[in-house]
Amino acid sequence: MKKNIKLLFTMLALSSMIVMLAGCNKFLDRKPLTATLDDLNQGGLEGQIYGLYSNLRGSAGFTTIPWLAMHDFRSDDSEKGSDPSDGAEWVAPFDKFQYVKDLWASNQYWDDHYSLINLANTAIQTADSLQLSDASSLVNIAEAKFFRAFAYFDLVRTYGEVPKIDFRVYNASQANIKKSTTSDIYALIDADLAYAAAHLPPVWGNQYPGRLTAGAAKTLQAKAYLFRGNWASAKTLADQVMTSGAYSLYSSYYGIFKDAGENCSESIFEIQAYVSPNGSISNGCGFATTQGVRASTASGWNLGWGWNTPTDNLVAAYEAGDVRKGSTILFSGQSDDPSTGGYGRVLPNSTFDVPAGPLPRKYWNKKIYADPAYRASTGKSDNPEWINKRVFRYSDVVLMAAEAANELSATGADSVKIKELVNSVRSRAGLASINYVNQATMRAAIMQERRVEFGVEGERFFDLVRWGKAVEVLGPLGYVEKCKYYPIPQPAIDKSGGKLIQNPDWQ
After folding, report:
1. What fold is seen in the domain 206-272+388-471?
2. What is the per-residue pLDDT for 22?
3. Which of 127, 300, 424, 425 would suit a FRET pair with 256, their CA atoms being 20 to 30 Å apart?
4. Tens digits of per-residue pLDDT, 323-335?
C-alpha cells in the first residue's frame, strides 16, 4: 500500500468542510480544509467526502443549464425558455434534437461528471492506501462509491458506452482510455451501490440533514435496474426502501418544494444549498436561479434567468382537479395561487397574451418559486440560490415499486398492491382512486402518474427512452432513434488521440 501520500491534498484545498450553521437545517460547507496523514488516520476521509458534496452542488453539469438541457429540455414537458434571443443556440440541439458535438452545455456536462468521478476515485484510493477499515471510514468509502455510481448512471444513459475510470488518476494520460460497454458500466454502478447500501446508515438524524443514506443508494440502484428492465431487482430494492420506515409521502405536494419542505419525510436525497436570511453567508446552488421568472428589474419580476419553462403539452397532461398542475406551473397573467404554494401575487402578462406583457414565456417552473420575503431579506431577489435541488423523492420509489410489480404480474396477482401504491400518490394529488383492469391499462396509468408527479424534474426524457416511447412521443419534435444517446463531446475525442471513439450513430 502506498504510504507516500502528500500531506496537502489539492482537492481538499478546493473543497469545503460541511457544518451545521445556527438556525440552518442543512448539511453545509465552510472554510477550505487541509489534512495530514494523522488527520486521515484519526478522522477518516471526511474532508475529501465533504468535498464531493460541495463539488456536486457547485457543478453546472449537475445543477444548472447543462443538466437542465440534458434532462429536461429534451422532453415534451419543458423547453429552453428565457427570451428567444437568450441562448438561442440551445434550441436546436435540445428542443429539436439536432444534436451538436461541440457545445458548451454537453462539454460541461461530460467534464463535470468525470470531475466528480475523479474526486470519488481519489477518496477511495486514499482509504485503500491507508488501509482504513474503521466504521467511519467505511461510511466515507460508501459515500464516495455512491457519488461515482451517481455520475456514471447519468453518463451511461446519456452517452451509452463511456470510459470506465474506476481508479485514481495521477496524470491526464492515465484517463485516456477506450470506452467500456454499457454492461461493464452498469456492473460498476451495481457494485458501488451494493457497497453503499451495506455501509451507509439508514438515517443520520438532525446532525447531518441531507447526507447520503442506505435508502438513497437503494433508490438509485432500483432506478438503474428499472432502466434495464430488471423488474425483480428493482422491486426488491424499492420494497426495502418502503418498508424501512425512514420515508413517507409528504402531506402536501406543493409543500415538498417550499423552504420548510427541504429534507422532509419524502426527501431521499437533495443537493443542499443555503443563504443566510441577511445574505451574509452564501453556500448556494444555481438550480433555482437558472429557472426563475425572467423579466426586467423594473417589472418587479426579475426572479432569475427563466430557463426550463413548461410546455403547452405538459399543461394539458393533468387531469381536472390535480393539485400538481398548480404546484408545478406558474402562469403568466394569473395569480400565483396560494392554495398550491403561491404568495398572493399576480404575474404580469406574457408577450403571448392580449394585451401583451413583459414576460417572454407563458409558463414558469413553480417548484423553484422562492418566498418574496426571503428574497428581499437576502438581497438576492433574482438569485434564489438557497433552494435545494430535489434529486430523489419517496414518491419515485412508490411508483417504481408499482411499475416493477406490474411488469412482473401479467396475471394481475399483485393487482391490489399495485393499485394501492398508485392511488397513494393520486390521493395526495386530490384525485380519485383508479381500479386495476389489466397490466396494460395499469402500465399506462403508471406512465401518466410519473409524468405529472415529476413534471420538470428531469425524469420524463429518460422514462420515455426506457419505455420505448421516445420516437412516438418526441418524434414530432425531431427525435429519431439515434437521439437516445447524445454524441460524445468532440473536445474529449480530440484530446484522446484516437482512443475515444464517437458513438456509432454520430460518427
Report:
1. 1.25.40
2. 29
3. 300
4. 999 999 999 999 9
Name, in order, each residue with C-beta under 8 angstroms of 274's C-beta and a sequence gap of 6 or more: 21, 24, 26, 28, 281, 282, 283, 284, 386
The C-alpha atoms of residue 259 and residue 372 are separated, in whole angstroms, by 12
* Helices and strands per DSSP (H, E), number in the chain: 19, 10
Cβ atoms 270, 283 nearer than 8 A:
no
Q: In the numeric block, which cell numbers belong to residue 39?
A: 488527520
Kindly tell me the burial class for residue 25, based on how many C-beta atoms sit within 10 Å of its own C-beta (0-12, 13-18, 19 or more). middle
Main-chain phi, psi angles of 307, to 5 degrees:
-85, 165
Kind plus residue range of the DSSP H or E element containing 472: helix 470-474
Half-sphere exposure of 177 (CA within 13 A, CB side): 14
Calculate Rg over the CA atoms of the chain. 22
Contacts of 420 (CB under 8 A, 6+ apart): none
Give the pLDDT confidence of 185-204 residue by residue, as tens digits: 999 999 999 999 999 999 99
Are 78 and 308 in contact by the 8 Å Cβ rule? The answer is yes
Residue (of 300, 376, 311, 282) closest to 345 by Cα position: 300
Instruction: Look at residue 45 in the predicted model and tell me its pLDDT.
Output: 84
- Coil, helix or strand at residue 122: helix
Q: Where in the chain is the domain with CATH 1.25.40.390?
A: 1-200, 206-272+388-471
Any idea which architecture 1-200 has in CATH? Alpha Horseshoe (1.25)
Q: What is the rounded average pLDDT of the residues 406-421?
A: 95
pLDDT tens sequence across 474-492: 999 999 999 999 999 999 9
